[in-house]
Amino acid sequence: MSSPRLPGSTGFDGAPTVTLYDEDLPPDNSYAFSPDELEEDEMILNMGPQHPSTHGVLRIELKTDGEIIKDSRPHIGYLHRNFEKHAENIDYQGVIPFTDRMDYVGSMGNSLAYALTVEKLLGITVGERVACIRIITAELQRIASHLLAMGTYGMDIGAFTPFLLCFQQRERVLDLFEWLCGARLLYNYNWVGGVSHDLPDGWTDRCGRFLDEFVPVLDEVDRLLSHNKIFIRRTGDVGIIPPEMARDYALSGPNLRGSGISWDLRRDDPYLGYEDYDFDVITGTGAHGPIGSCWDRYFVRVREMYESVRIVRQALERLPAEGDVRENVPRFIRPSAGEAYCRSEAPRGELGFYIVADQKKPIPYRVKGRSPCFVAMGLFHEITRGEMIADIIAIIGSLDIVLGEIDR
Amino acid sequence: MITRFRQVEMRLMGPLTAIPIVLATVVLVTIAALPFVSAVLSEWIRDAVPAGLQHAVAVTLGTVGFVAVLALNPIYAIWLERKVAAHVQDRLGPMRVGWHGLLQSFADGVKLLFKEDLVPKDADRVLFRLAPMVAIAGAFAAFVVIPWGVRADGAVLAVSNLNIGVLYFIAITSIGALSVLMAGWGSNNKYALYGGMRAAAQMVSYEIPTAILVLVVVAQVGSLSLPEIVAAQAGGFLGISNWLVFQLFPLNLIAFVLFFICGLAETNRTPFDIPEAESELVAGFHTEYSGMRFAFFFLAEYGNMLLISMLAALLFLGGWVGPVGSNPLLLFAKAFGLVVVQMWLRWTLPRLRVDQLMAVCWKYVIPISFFLLVVVAVLKSIL
Known about the structure:
The complex is a heterodimer. In chain A, the strands form 3 sheets. In chain A, strands 1-2-3 form a 3-stranded antiparallel β-sheet. Chain A is an alpha+beta fold. Chain A has helices at residues 83-87, 95-100, 107-122, 128-157, 161-181, 203-225, 229-235, 243-248, 254-258, 265-268, 294-318, 372-377, 380-384, 389-399, 403-407; strands at 42-47, 59-65, 68-75, 190-191, 194-195, 338-346, 349-357, 364-370. Chain A starts with 41 loop residues before the first strand and ends with a helix. Chain B has 2 domains: 1-114, no CATH class; 118-382, no CATH class. Chain B is built from 14 helices and 2 strands, in the order ααααααααααααββαα. In chain B, strands 1-2 form a two-stranded antiparallel ribbon. In chain B, α5 (125-141) packs parallel to α12 (291-316) and α7 (174-186) packs antiparallel against α8. Chain B is globular and about 70 Å long. The chains are: A alpha+beta, B mainly alpha.
């Protein structure tokens, strides 16, 4: 099995291992706004990277006319940590902690996507117990991640209380994870061929108890925030992504479903046996304003949490009592030359890894992450044009970006 | 070293907690006994002070009194706000510094006092330094006309009993908008500028319905004098049925709610806190302020909260008259009740956008206020 992208094959002059650039060249500032192009009454407002509500170190240049946004340019890269290059120097298992640090509020989803890709490359299948545990952790992680999105979104709009109510519940998910694998944020839990720890005794009971107590709290926060008149006025008619635009820009996850397109990899390209689970794919309804508004995207996340609860309940029921979770974990990973792409539905959308393997080498030749947040940033300038300064915050929050995943 | 400091801190904490409690008790007892205190003081002034100076001494004493209340108000109001916020959010709030965190505000105050006095390099130094003073002057000056009660001999307990007190109030609160604009412009910071501009637009807009709603009250009572407005609300069933808010139901109730909303907007409280909108403008007009200048803005904000609540209580809730007769403490209690409502709203509601805020004012609040004024005037002339 050979690929034209592999070294040694004809027509390929290799990926550059060092960036070649001329140090004497002046820095290229053509992307930034220049003060010369401003018309009368216009002003450049620099938002970030230290702004409180850009969800990390995102910097946005805004060309404003009073409160109206004429144009915007996001500058990314402040959190670039060289993940893909690092991955070319570390063995396959060692990449997993790096994937955790991509979307650092949805780590389980990242390592799951990576593990699935390497398993696809190696042709490993995991047992029923591992698949159930992976689904449980992935869905709990989705709940935690959406809780964070919901809480911080409320805070972006100016309501502080839902944030703390959401974080209380998120803490409980993190407690569960801590009991499971010792870490609260970056788990290194999904290994190639299995998971790092089996469920401790009593974990499933506590997980079920959490689900029972979580749903009423979610109802309460939902009542407090989602249908608040001011909240709807702030988000219902703002940041519209029409279905065509969402498809053209290859959005995925809640951002895509918020525009009314029913596309969920758990249903449409199932992995881990998701096809056996009973859950609905939530789409935006345009209940308050045009379809694809900030409110739609926000509310898709809220309702997805209920669906995740359903999935976790089913997974807890069908979890096999016995089974070695490290049964299929390979001692050495030396795949034959080849490539694999595997995608999965992470909390923020389609997270995929593309791995190119070198012949019998213990380290990958190339690892490429397909990050949903990076894709979502691509249409940022389109949907912010003509909105107001306060809407910028609402739009960033509704896209639910994590800069760790954008910059990698 | 740290352990040692902690031990000293713990030992001091118990006795020190007595300070805020004693202070609050003294202030509340003084307010409750204000008619008596004032009678004794005026007796003393009449006897001991030369005739030419009597007025000056009386005004000075009154000013010192209300400035003391206003200076202490934020210390307790901030503590209360943090406690209200905490309990809304299912947590405890300040618990460490003193009993239930009562000393927290004192500690914060000391911290602010010792902070470096920073002025940004490119700021307009004069405006930057002047803005907090103007803010606090505007907030405090309005308290001059607030009557706290009446004595048995009919004298009004106010620093200055203006017969056009309401008009003076409307005029003097406009200074607050000026200070915010000065701070926003003087900071030479784009976020502060946005905050200042928003604040100016917001405060100027909401002054119009405030004035109209005050006129609704004035039209019914037939006087611009706050003591007379309160006197018109005395008596009735349980001492509350004559409160203006219950008259001409539901006209005055609507007027009261609208007045309270305008008050929220004028004091820049959530859901109208767009001038300092933390998630958008970092901190709005006080982005560049720190230390005592920042504290002055805070002092002014909490002063304004108390002011607008007191005025609402005077105009609509019967001021110092109530079920237990007539006492300044009643006014204070009603005002603080409304302050708590303001805090409760702040920790529950999201924030409006700047154009929606203007739309609320110009499309809804002002027309409804005008409608109320016309209806009340017509009803008054018929009845």
